[in-house]
Design a protein that fits this description.
The complex is a heterodimer of chains A (433) and B (89). Chain A contains twelve helices and 13 strands. Chain A has an eleven-stranded mixed beta sheet, with helices on both faces. A two-stranded antiparallel sheet of chain A has the order 1-3. In chain A, helix 6 crosses helix 8 and helix 6 crosses helix 9. Chain A is α/β, with parallel strands linked by helices and 433 residues long. Helices cover 33% and strands 17% of the residues of chain A. Chain B has a domain of 39 residues: Glu-tRNAGln amidotransferase C subunit, N-terminal domain (Histone, subunit A). Chain B contains three helices and two strands. Chain B starts with a helix and ends in a 6-residue tail after the last strand. Classes of the chains: A alpha/beta (433), B mainly alpha (89). Chains A and B meet through helix 6, helix 7, helix 8, helix 9 and helix 10 of A and helix 1 and helix 2 of B.
Chain lengths: 433, 89
């Protein structure tokens, strides 16, 4: 039987895509006939994969990532590759070497990042669902800023085979969509065991969202509403949490002291891992070539100077420094101790409560160039990074608007309880509608 | 505090190449970030750091992989089925 094809002639008004096709093959399965967009750091056989970087310009992977194999097996029409902060390093998608994506709710504002292209493609109505990746909030931040749903799965629940590595111990591929049901459906398609990812767990996600949370214990750490959170965002998210209470959940306030240094632990860890992972980009095997006639160091320095943008270069420098002899104990080792404390904090809280709730982001989407200083940009990730440090699942679901811009409610759960996190978001979505 | 000399040294270790203007800018930006990281000095940890994780072993079996031609397909310079790289010495 000849493969069926679907038309995809949507106009890309917000710069969501780096590559797209007008027609895509579709097959039989749970995603049959559904156009799905894929973030550009996920390998697609025969389709350019740049990670939003000049250093991978022209690179065409000879293989599909596990999740892309799964999409095709479920009949999805892979229609294009979405824009992102270079290698996932950013909170706005302004760090793409190919230009920024604009927020469909206000073109003067960023869509969030780093999966900003995927979020904008969904929010603008171009696609129903898309894949993103989340190292420190890169699915949940753009989901919150663009008013869609995004899930960072439990670490190990989705294979990272074919994901271009940035910070292996933190990142996960995850589903993004207009509704919780769509996110759940896409999660079903991409989860499952894969021997090619040595950190993959054999814990497939097979679940239909349930509209029942009576007796659910919802913890609200006071640090989630700390000083950096916009009071209007805080008020809106509290109202959403009260809606959960009306649906039968019990709300319990609590504290999470490790939040004081979670962000520092996250940045030291991701920068260290990045400095090692990105050493592979040397112009020998892929991307624009280096000059093989000059000496090793000259050739690589020249290639990497042109190929990496400023944020990537900053993180490579800081990561190299944090791992260098004499500083390792002070930065990297301390960050791992802090990370263990974050994990222990979650474990202590989850002995008492079933999920945690709070805002996904401290503010609404920034205006372009609003955050020009790197440190102030990093600080906006404070509420999303703890889930990555601990490897627990977390979802962002829209909970209203502040000054016309969407705000996300974040629900975090125990390891491998992605289902409960999805159900809680689903109940909120249904009562809010 | 780290100075331009330190940043230049790290840039050499990381093989990223760095210009004079960039050196100034990065040094200015990196110091407040490192200052922020000092909060990690307050961290106390008594328990183990890798609680809840375990090694998973598998047989060391040879399985099919990409063909040589596919692996080389993105390299600009190849020779006799190998990548061509800059000289080391």
């Amino acid at each position: 039987m000849p493969a069926r094809r679907i038309r995809f002639d949507e106009e890309d008004r917000f710069g969501a895509f780096l590559w797209k096709r007008d027609e895509a093959p579709t097959g039989e399965g749970r995603l049959s006939g559904i156009p799905v967009a894929v973030k550009d750091n996920i390998s697609t056989r025969g389709i350019p994969t740049t990670c939003g970087s000049r250093i991978l310009e022209g690179y065409i992977p000879p293989y599909d990532a596990f999740v892309v194999d799964r999409l095709i097996a479920e009949g999805a029409a892979v229609v294009g590759k979405t824009n992102m902060d270079e290698f996932g390093m950013g909170t706005t998608t302004e760090n793409s070497a190919y230009g920024p994506t604009r927020n469909p709710h206000d073109e003067g504002r960023v869509p969030g990042g780093s999966s900003g292209g995927s979020a904008a493609a969904i929010a603008s109505g171009m696609v129903r669902m898309a894949l993103g990746t989340d190292t420190g909030g890169s699915i949940r931040c753009p989901a919150a800023f663009c008013g869609i749903v995004g899930l960072k799965p439990t670490y190990g629940r989705v294979s990272r085979y074919g994901l271009v590595a940035y910070a292996n111990s933190l990142e996960q591929i995850g589903p993004m969509g207009r509704t919780v049901a769509d996110v759940s459906l896409l999660m079903e398609a991409i989860s499952g065991y894969d021997a090619r990812d040595s950190t993959a767990a054999d814990r497939a996600y097979l679940h239909t969202p349930q509209q029942e949370i009576r007796g659910l214990r919802v913890g609200v750490p006071e640090e989630f509403f700390g000083s950096g959170v916009d009071p209007a965002v805080a008020a809106l998210v509290w109202k959403a949490i009260e809606r959960l209470e009306e649906c039968g959940a019990e709300i319990i306030t609590c504290t999470m002291p490790s939040m004081a240094y979670a962000l520092a632990a996250y940045y030291v860890t991701c920068m260290s891992e990045a400095s090692s992972n990105l050493a592979r980009f040397d112009g020998v095997r892929y991307g624009p070539p280096c000059d093989v006639r000059s000496s090793w160091h000259d050739a690589f320095q020249e290639r990497r100077k042109d190929g990496f943008g400023p944020e990537v270069r900053r993180r490579i420098l800081l990561g190299t420094f944090a791992l260098s002899s004499g500083y390792y104990g002070r930065y990297y080792a301390k960050a791992q101790a802090a990370r263990a404390n974050v994990r222990a904090d979650f474990a202590r809280l989850f002995a008492d409560v079933d999920v945690l709730a709070g805002p996904t982001m401290p503010t609404i989407a920034f205006r372009f160039s609003e955050k020009s200083d790197p440190l102030s940009m990093y600080l906006s990730d404070i509420l999303t990074v703890p889930a990555n440090l601990a490897g627990v699942p977390a979802i962002s679901v829209p909970c209203g608007t502040v000054r016309g811009m969407p705000v996300g409610l974040q629900i975090t759960g125990r390891h491998f309880e992605d289902e409960r996190v999805v159900d809680t978001a689903y109940v909120y979505e249904q009562v809010a509608a | 505090m780290i100075g331009e000399k330190d940043v230049e040294h790290i840039a050499v270790l990381a093989d990223i190449g760095i210009s004079k203007e960039e050196l100034e800018k990065f040094t200015t930006q990196i110091n407040p970030i490192l200052e922020y990281f000092e909060i990690l000095d307050q961290v106390c940890r008594t328990g183990p750091e890798n609680e809840g994780t375990a090694n998973i072993f598998r047989e060391d079996k040879v399985t099919p992989s990409l063909a040589q031609g596919e692996v080389l397909s993105n390299a600009r310079e190849t020779e006799d089925g190998f990548f061509r790289a800059p000289r080391v010495m």
